Amino acid sequence: MGPWRCLILLPLLAGALRAQQQQFMEYVERRLTLLEERISQWHDQSSRYSTELRDFKNQVLGMLETAEKEREAMRTEAESVAVRMDRLEREVDYLETQNPAPPCVEVDETLMEKQVATAKQRKNEKYTKLTDCSDTIASVRAMKILKRFGSTSGLWTKDAAGNSEKIYVFDGTANDTVYVFPRMREFTLFSATRKASRIKLPYPWVGTGHLVYDGHLYYIRQQGPFQVIKFNLANKTVVDSSVFPAEEQIPVFGLSPFTYIEVAADEEGLWAIYATKEDEKNICLAKLDPTSLDIEQMWDTPCPRENAEAAFMVCGALHVVYNTRLPSRSRVQCVFDVSGTLAPEDASLVYFPKRYGSHSSMKYNPQERQIYAWDDGYQIIYRMEMKKKLEV
């Protein structure tokens, strides 16, 4: 090919190259334009989705805030209902205490006089024992000081005839509320009464001569004449009441002037220890029917009231505990056996370890063979050593 032909082809080739380059640039521009449109479309969609997500989040937060307010309103309403229910329960309890259920058997004065006359006819007769119990106290085997709780005078005890582990506490010598601890552990470990339930009695009690026996509380009420109230601990109602048929009663113990009737229990059942002006020097004793509160038999004992601080029954024998007005060592110094199977000279002279003052109450538990005592605000357990009686 000659040089002149090359000169002719060069412009043609340059034009072709420019055409191809132009087409390629147009192609690239179209692709870039399409890509920009897609990016713009994605940006618009992303912005819309972000806006919708933000609106949804705000809507959910608004719903959660509304739900929280409604929950708080419901909680407040529930608390208000609980407070109103608690107030209603207290009002019902108050109304029940102000209008207690009447005893199943009202006191018939004629019937009571007849029963008293029958009991007086049998007064000081030899007692026919109901059990084969022939034990008497030999000595104090052990003493345990549980704690110091409440007033200087009071009473604490367990059910003398049941299997319950509950501890019943009467703080002071006049009140209408009894503390109930579920077990000995709760009573021992806690100084406050937060572990105790409370029983508000329909009538106030007086003294420290009360007793828990076979699921019932036998307590003393003073309204003119003294009454023994039988109170069911399960349904919190008065089962029966009886005016104690003793005229011109006086404190039964010279060192415990707040106690006029001491209700006691032993292996033989229920007893009442009391004193009257008719025989003001000595202590009297009566056997009670725990079901009807009738007096079955009465005795004048040789045990003096002077310097007596407490008393309890063991196997049908009255044990009177004495002290001095300047507190010293308490001791059982008089024993009166209603069945006549224990001669006074054969009874042991039992001494209680010298502690703080004098006992305001001593409750014998025939099942455990121990005494629950209250000494100047201290709660003490005396475990007793027993021996057989020597029959007269």
Automatic annotation (TrEMBL):
<keyword id="KW-1015">Disulfide bond</keyword>
<keyword id="KW-0175">Coiled coil</keyword>
<protein>
    <submittedName>
        <fullName>OLFL3 protein</fullName>
    </submittedName>
</protein>
<feature type="domain" description="Olfactomedin-like">
    <location>
        <begin position="132"/>
        <end position="388"/>
    </location>
</feature>
<dbReference type="Pfam" id="PF02191">
    <property type="entry name" value="OLF"/>
</dbReference>
<keyword id="KW-0964">Secreted</keyword>
<dbReference type="InterPro" id="IPR050605">
    <property type="entry name" value="Olfactomedin-like_domain"/>
</dbReference>
<keyword id="KW-0732">Signal</keyword>
<feature type="signal peptide">
    <location>
        <begin position="1"/>
        <end position="19"/>
    </location>
</feature>
<feature type="disulfide bond">
    <location>
        <begin position="133"/>
        <end position="315"/>
    </location>
</feature>
<keyword id="KW-0325">Glycoprotein</keyword>
<dbReference type="GO" id="GO:0007165">
    <property type="term" value="P:signal transduction"/>
</dbReference>
<keyword id="KW-0217">Developmental protein</keyword>
<feature type="coiled-coil region">
    <location>
        <begin position="57"/>
        <end position="98"/>
    </location>
</feature>
<dbReference type="InterPro" id="IPR003112">
    <property type="entry name" value="Olfac-like_dom"/>
</dbReference>
<dbReference type="GO" id="GO:0005615">
    <property type="term" value="C:extracellular space"/>
</dbReference>
<comment type="similarity">
    <text>Belongs to the OLFML3 family.</text>
</comment>
